[in-house]
Amino acid sequence: MGQPVNVGVVGCGAISAQYFPTIDRLPGLRLVAVADLDPDRAREAVRPYPGVDVLTVAELVTDPRVDVVLNLTIPAAHTEIALQAIAAGKDVYSEKPLAATAEEAERVLRAADAARVRVGCAPDTVLGTGTQTARKAIDDGLIGTPIAATATMITPGHERWHPNPDFYYLPGGGPLLDMGPYYVTSLVTLLGPVASVIGAASRTRSKRVIGSGPRQGEEIPVTVDTHVTGVLVHASGALSTLVMSFDGTATRASNIEVHGEKGSLVVPDPNHFDGSVLVSGADGWQDLPASAGYVEAGRGVGLADFASTPAGQEPRAGGALAFHVLDVMEALLSSAHTGVAVTITSTCERPPPVYLRPSEEA
Q: What are the tens digits of pLDDT across the range 229-269?
């Protein structure tokens, strides 16, 4: 094995606590530095990891030790941080979405191409045994030709548990851009790229009330659609029906179902790496054993997969896929506002499958 890839992290908010343990245990990655608008928060975040430096953003992106910048800032800051890192000649791997808008994401990809550096992006949950086992079942013809899929996420909203949920209700947020990347990335992984969309959307409330933390009881404004639904027409001809909502209270619908001419699959929550995959058969629904994907994966396995991808190959959690997913979601919102179907001008290759292996081999 070669030397581990040195990682510098910008943004030490809540999501960093899921990345740091994964980076710490994967032999292909080494956390060397972090930066945050609040240096005290950065120091507290890396307290369990001795030897990690706390720097400014400018210091981190130019630090010669840093091979890849892991961008864990809020969506509105993704483009600024990515462009700074690219200008310094660093590869960039971002938390989802790739940028607040497809236009900004395109700027990032153009800059990276000009600088000859690579861009990757979450979600990497689709690389776990859940989605990958479902994908293998489809590829092996277990359900025949895929005809349709459904993807459903209904929750009362993240302000119930997040102490600073403002960004969920600002441009770049909402249920589609926040949770949609997990579902749309999974649908593209399972069924291939999307050719067109048609959507509808609504906003039930103009304000939300924070339910926990020091700001509990504070009202925050809602400036985005909080219930989005639509149909994705895949280039393969399969149709995916998507429902993303911060306005409902609960659902008993499967997170994702895929229906083929010979059978159907229940795919586990794409916000998780594993979970039961069910297939319909003559004897009803049956569990499929894990047959593909990184085993016992955590957030950051996509970064390791990205870092180990040979030069000249598009990473599984790469910029092309992330841009296509963002383009699809933005087009769905545009269709919801205009009432007109939108053709998707971007595309991507269906990412290569992950054969069953320990996440330490990412």
A: 999 999 999 999 999 999 999 999 999 999 999 999 999 99
68 shares a domain with 132: no
Residue 133 pLDDT grade (very low, low, confident, very high; cuts 50, 70, 90):
very high
C-alpha dist (Å) from residue 214 to 42, 209, 238, 287: 19, 13, 47, 44
Q: What is the mean pLDDT of residues 141-165?
A: 95
pLDDT mean across residues, the chain: 95
DSSP code of residue 351 = P
| Whether 68 and 159 share a structural domain | no
Show the domain range for 83. 5-121
Q: Is 2 helix (H, G, I), strand (E, B) or coil?
A: coil
**Is 287 within the bounds of a domain?**
yes
How many alpha carbons lie under 13 Å from residue 104 in its C-beta half-sphere?
18
Tens digit of each residue's pLDDT (9 = 90 or more) over 86-128: 999 999 999 999 998 999 999 999 999 999 999 999 999 999 9
Tell whether 136 and 108 lie within a shared domain: no
Domain end (from 121, 146, 166): 121
Residues 116 and 131 in one domain: no
Q: Are residues 165 and 274 both part of a single domain?
A: yes
Note whether 84 and 99 are same-domain residues: yes
CB within 8 A of 312, min separation 6: which ones?
Answer: none
φ, ψ (nearest 5 deg) of residue 119:
-125, 130
* Residue 62: strand pairing partners: none
| Beta-sheet strand order (sheet of 5-10) | 53-54, 29-35, 5-10, 68-71, 91-94, 119-121
Q: Tell me which residue of 102, 42, 329 sits closest to 31, measured CA to CA.
A: 42
C-alpha closest to that of 175 among 157, 197, 196 = 157
Picking from 35, 39, 123, the residue whose alpha carbon sits closest to that of residue 85 is 35
Of 276, 241, 280, 246, nearest in space to 260 by CA: 280
Q: Is 252 inside a domain boundary?
A: yes
Where do the H-state alpha helices sit in the chain?
16-25, 39-45, 57-62, 78-87, 102-115, 129-139, 174-191, 301-308, 319-338
Q: Give, in degrees to the nearest 5, the angle at Cα 314 between 58 and 18.
A: 55
